[in-house]
Every structure is written in structure tokens, then in C-alpha cells.
Design brief:
Elements: E1 4-14, H1 16-22, H2 24-32, H3 37-41, H4 49-53, H5 56-61, H6 67-71, E2 91-94, H7 96-106, E3 112-114, H8 116-126, H9 134-139, H10 146-156, E4 159-163, E5 166-171, H11 183-207, E6 216-219, H12 236-243, E7 250-253, H13 260-273, E8 279-284, H14 295-300, E9 309-318, E10 326-334, H15 343-350, H16 352-357, E11 367-369, H17 375-378, H18 386-400, H19 409-416, H20 435-444, E12 449-456, E13 468-475, H21 487-510
Parallel strand pairs: 1-2, 6-7, 6-8, 11-12
Antiparallel strand pairs: 1-9, 3-5, 4-5, 8-9, 10-13, 12-13
InterPro entries: ACP_syn_III_N (IPR013751), DUF5940 (IPR045984), Gly/sarc/bet/_Rdtase_C_bsu (IPR017236)
EC number: 1.21.4.-
Protein name: Glycine/sarcosine/betaine reductase complex component C subunit beta
Length: about 500
């Protein structure tokens, strides 16, 4: 039987100081021209926590609003507000100071140093968090003076940690010669690990599953950890599992740029369907590098820096319970080595070709979850409305195949598509944000099938010029249970076999 989706969680950390000091657009600009007008004016365009929380797409990400509700709000959304709810159906939006505290919690090599006053204030806040226990409070009990932190930054090339524009701590380098363990790399990886850990904790609370029942974790972000001899050796999955208290789990990392999460979900579904594991978590932390990635374009149009959140997610794939939505891995689209790079070939390989093999039309999929980037972010940067462009290509395929009329293309886009709401954190928008809503929509009977499409730009790694993509279908549970054989039936079959063998042997002896 197919494996099923039992739950999905989504986490955001509002990190405006990390935008300024850790996003690659800003760090590169600082190297090129530290006195640039862009760097001088960026802080004036940062949102405060309340504005971030009340931003409609962020509320969709954590499940307090639906994509359909977001669609009713006129764009642009950055000048619109909704309810300021930190906690959502799927997760939460954490303020930056508390998230810095989480970085300290997930640091197992004592590389994060926080100033006394800041650490105490954060400790008091995190003590009230419903998902955290006394372990984190112990980590935040360390006393470090500001003079010590300044010494680490000035003499040991530690990476400063900022909050409200002030240095409140630092991340030390893990090695003084190995550049894969330099402070800025450790900083980035701890951010990814901390955000991934929070997503897992929300998933555990949401599903109610016992921690000891989780057997395997697949982490599918776009970060890499290792040392000079194996720069991407890993393992974020096991590292986050340790922090979340999954003592019975092991795991590994899956990488595929933006398509990584879809690859990981198919692997998880296969592991469960085959019976290797009963419960697998697929998760991914966020990226500091992509914070403020389109900041220059946003500032040039006098809009806020909208890429100010580190995002993460976690989903639970389990054995078929006869109720939860199934991951139909018999319908898998693949962009192969020989597919080619034309948009038509790419989208065909991921949608129409696998569907036709299963005897389905493009119109048989109720919802497509593609690259669900927030158009508030991408349109000012010149990238257009990414989800809409994908839906138009799928609709155009349906027209070519005679499944809809050309005049019906706008209706196809509206009926089978959605507005985008996800942060542009690479792997985060790639199909994954709709999993939580799809589970609800399928269970409520609103839809029967959804297709999740992940696409990745492998050429960015300079190892191949190839594009990548993979897709799968999630569907209403068939409700069928495999026939099981009872212990009594097994004994009966063994007994009958032994009797047959004995009779056969007796006949041979008589001969």
C-alpha cells in the first residue's frame, strides 16, 4: 500500500539583522563598496516583527490563512495587514532574539557565545515557549562578558551576532585553517539546524506521534556541512533529530537544489511503502544566504525588504492508515538527463507524461503545487509571477492535447492553480508549502488529487549544465487494507504442508 502524509509543519524566524549582516547580496556589496547607498539605506527598509507577523503571505505559510483567502486580497500585499498571530495551525513566526537563543541551543561545540544580559532576557522568553524544555535553559545559563565576545570577534575571526543593530554575541570558528569550518559557515549551518529543529518540534506536537516512533529523518535543504576533506559530508538530518529528541532515529541528507524536497519525499514514501521504516520525517532548515536576496530591487522601488525570514518545514510520512492522503509514487514525473531544457519538454516530463502513463489527463489533477514563490517578492525583482507562469505552461499543454479549449486557459489556471505565498528560500517554495493545505483539502473532500512539482537549477553548482525536476501525486486514501494472514491461518497452512509432505514421503516408501 502507498504511504501517507500524516502532518506538515512550517516555521519562520524573523531575522532582519541577519538580512543586513549575513545575506549574500549584502555581504558581497560590503566587500565591493562598503560605503554604498544601498547599505546605508537598507536598515530604513527593514520591517519590524509586528509587520512581519501581520503580513498576509506569512500567515498563509503558518496556516492561519488559506491560499484562497490570500487570493481575495488585492496585490501588492506588503502594504496590507492581517491578524498578528505568532502561532499558526502549521507552526509559528519566531522573533529574532528567541531564534538566536535557538542557535545557542543547537550548538553542541560551544561555538555560540551570547552576552550575559541578552542571554538572560532570551532565556526568560524561551522558558515560556510551549515546545521547549529545560535543556535550552541550561544552555542559556552560560555567562559571557561583552569584552570576551569582542575579543573573539577581533582576535579569532568570530562572526558577530546582531540584534536591533547591536552586537549581542558571536559564532566562533570551529577551526583556524579549515575554511569549511570558518565562523560564517558555522553561523549559516547553525541557522539551518535551528530552524529545522523548530519545524520538527512543531510537527511532533501537531501529529502527536511518539518521538521514539520516528525511525528515519531526511533533511533536504541547500546547505552543506563537513570539513576540508569532505565539505558536504553531512549530516543535518541526524543533527536536527538529536536536538528534537528523536533518540530512535537515524537519517541522511538529500540534496538537489530546489528540487531536493520532492526527491526526499519520494524517497521517504518509498522507504515506508517498502516496509523498511514505518515513520519517516522529511525536513529542511532555512538559509541566511538568501535573506535580502532581491533587496536592491525592493529598495529601488521603495518597498520593504520582504526576504527577512528564515523558513523551514517538516512533514511526517507513515504507513497507510486507511484515512490520510496517499503519496502515489506510481505516478512520478522525472526530468531525465535526456529530457532537454526547453520549457515545454521540462513541464511535459513532470506533468503530462507521468499522468498519461497512469491513464490520467492534466485536468484530472485538482491542484498543482509548483514553485510557490510570493509574487510580492519576485515581481519587483523582474522575475514575474512564478506560480502563474507555471500554471499557464501546464494549461497550454492541456490545450495542445485537446483536454481544454484555448479560451478556457484562464479558468484552468484559476481552478488548478494558486497564488504564491512562500519565502524565496530556494528549496522552501518548491511545491512543499501546499502539503499542509492539501492534506486538509483531501480529507475534507474538496479535492481528490494534487500534484507536487519540484524543479532545481543544478547548473548553479558548475558540475553540469542540466536542469532538474521531479514530481509525484498525492491522492485521497483508497481505504483499502491489505489482506492480512492471522497466526492461526499460518499454523494451518504449515500443518497442511507438513501433512502433504508426509503423505508424499509415505507413498515413496511404499514404492
Amino acid at each position: 500500500m502507498y504511504s501517507v502524509l500524516k502532518g506538515s509543519s512550517y516555521f519562520l524566524a524573523h531575522t532582519p539583522d541577519m538580512v543586513v549582516h549575513n545575506g549574500t547580496t549584502q555581504t558581497l556589496q560590503r566587500k565591493i563598496d562598503p560605503d554604498s547607498e544601498y547599505l546605508k539605506s537598507i536598515t530604513k527598509h527593514l520591517r519590524d516583527y509586528e509587520a512581519c507577523v501581520s503580513y498576509p503571505p506569512n500567515q498563509v505559510y503558518i496556516g492561519n490563512m488559506t491560499p484562497e483567502e490570500l487570493e481575495t486580497i488585492e496585490t501588492p500585499w506588503y502594504n496590507k495587514k492581517t491578524d498578528e498571530k505568532r502561532q499558526g495551525t502549521f507552526g509559528e513566526i519566531m522573533p529574532e532574539d528567541e531564534f538566536i537563543g535557538m542557535m545557542k541551543y543547537v550548538d553542541v561545540f560551544d561555538l555560540v557565545k551570547l552576552a550575559d544580559d541578552f542571554s538572560k532576557a532570551v532565556k526568560n522568553k524561551l522558558a515560556k515557549h510551549p515546545l521547549l524544555d529545560e535543556k535550552i535553559l541550561e544552555k542559556l545559563a552560560e555567562e559571557v562578558s561583552f569584552e570576551e565576545i569582542s575579543g573573539f570577534i577581533e582576535n579569532e575571526k568570530a562572526e558577530p551576532i546582531y540584534f536591533n543593530g547591536e552586537i549581542v554575541g558571536c559564532v566562533k570558528a570551529a577551526h583556524n585553517l579549515d575554511d569549511t569550518l570558518f565562523a560564517h559557515v558555522i553561523f549559516e549551518n547553525l541557522v539551518s539546524k535551528a530552524s529545522c529543529t523548530m519545524a520538527i518540534l512543531h510537527l511532533l506536537q501537531q501529529t502527536g506521534i511518539n518521538k521514539t516512533d520516528i525511525e528515519y529523518v531526511l533533511e533536504c535543504s541547500e546547505e552543506a556541512c563537513g570539513d576540508m576533506n569532505q565539505r558536504g559530508g553531512g549530516n543535518f538530518a541526524k543533527a536536527a533529530a538529536e536536538m528534537a529528541g528523536l533518540e530512535n532515529a537515524t537519517g541522511s541528507d538529500v540534496r538537489g537544489f530546489c528540487a531536493g524536497p520532492t526527491h526526499a519525499l519520494i524517497q521517504a514514501a518509498s522507504l515506508v511503502k517498502s516496509g523498511v521504516f514505518k515513520n519517516v520525517i522529511v525536513c529542511a532548515g532555512g538559509s541566511t544566504a538568501k535573506l535580502g536576496m532581491n533587496g536592491k530591487d525592493h529598495l529601488s522601488k521603495d518597498i520593504p525588504i520582504l526576504e527577512d525570514c528564515v523558513a523551514s518545514f517538516a512533514v511526517l510520512i507513515s504507513e497507510n492508515d486507511g484515512v490520510s492522503p496517499e503519496l502515489n509514487i506510481d505516478i512520478v514525473g522525472r526530468h531525465t538527463v535526456g529530457t532537454g531544457a526547453s520549457p515545454q519538454k521540462v513541464i511535459s516530463s513532470l506533468t503530462s507524461i507521468p499522468l498519461e502513463k497512469a491513464g490520467l489527463k492534466l485536468t484530472d489533477i485538482d491542484k498543482y503545487s509548483v514553485e510557490m514563490q510570493n509574487p510580492d517578492i519576485t515581481k519587483p525583482a523582474g522575475a514575474g509571477n512564478v506560480p502563474e507562469a507555471n500554471y499557464k505552461m501546464i494549461g497550454a499543454l492541456a490545450v495542445m492535447k485537446g483536454q481544454i479549449q484555448k479560451a478556457d486557459l484562464p479558468d484552468f489556471v484559476k481552478q488548478h492553480g494558486m497564488v504564491g505565498w512562500a519565502p524565496t528560500q530556494g528549496h522552501i517554495p518548491s511545491g512543499i508549502p501546499y502539503l499542509g493545505f492539501a492534506q486538509k483539502d483531501i480529507l475534507s473532500g474538496e479535492i481528490n488529487r494534487a500534484m507536487f512539482v519540484g524543479k532545481g537549477s543544478l547548473f548553479l553548482g558548475r558540475m553540469t549544465n542540466l536542469f532538474d525536476g521531479i514530481s509525484f501525486v498525492m491522492q485521497k486514501n483508497s481505504g483499502k487494507q491489505e489482506e492480512s494472514v492471522s497466526e492461526a491461518q499460518i499454523k494451518q497452512m504449515i500443518g497442511e504442508s507438513l501433512r502433504d509432505f508426509a503423505n508424499h514421503l509415505a507413498g515413496k516408501l511404499e514404492e
